[in-house]
Amino acid sequence: MLVLLPPSETKRAGGTGRSLSLEDLRFPSLTDARRALADDVVALSEDADAAIAALKLGPKQHGEVDTNRELWQSPTLPALDRYTGVLFDALDAASLSPGARAFAGEHLVIHAALFGPVGALDPIPAYRLSHDSRVPGRPLKRHWRSAVEQTLAAETGLVLDLRSEAYVALGPAPEGTHFLRVLTESPGGVRRALNHFNKKAKGEFTRALIESETNFTTTDQLLDWASDVGIRIERQPDSTDLALLV
């Protein structure tokens, strides 16, 4: 089983690990693409005004340029601990048991705009780059889409895609992947997609999945487990999509 998460704009600063080594990251087929983009982002940071425009930084975010300039030298944290924000706060990685963290390291992948998909425990530095950032001469969709698509296509087993559509565009998951949509249902039975609060639901669902420490191999197994623990997930008609109802 593989679970794909989006990243977060907000990240913890600092770190306890050694500086970035691309060889420590999952999916080594992406190493060259990672190095080329990281070098371009560092080079961009030498021109603060250009970097601020490319990264769409507000006045209180200008320090992110310095963060990118130190990309190769700054300390690292496991990706699962690096990201903050609604989804990752709900997942609350710091309180996971050692067994659950190990399970996350094997089955959870976070799709970073800078590094492509990385394992949950892969050591990464703080950085600033979003799916819609404009790195001169290197459009992110063109840079990542084919490489990430080929990399994910090599994965076998059940794949759950919890990414936003913006990150799916940077590398579609294999055919047969279950894209998870978060829906709410009114008393009259009308369903609608959640916006901001879908991140919290995805974080809580991911935590429950990690804590189960179960490598589900079929959709039926996943749905049976969800029903047993009080999580409402349904297949969507004429689609491999799943709906998480909250």
UniProtKB/TrEMBL annotation:
Signal peptide: none annotated. GO terms for cellular component: cytosol. GO terms for biological process: response to hydroperoxide. It holds the Pfam family H2O2_YaaD. Transmembrane segments: none annotated. Coiled coil: none annotated. This is Peroxide stress protein YaaA. The lineage of its organism: Bacteria, Bacillati, Actinomycetota, Actinomycetes, Micrococcales.
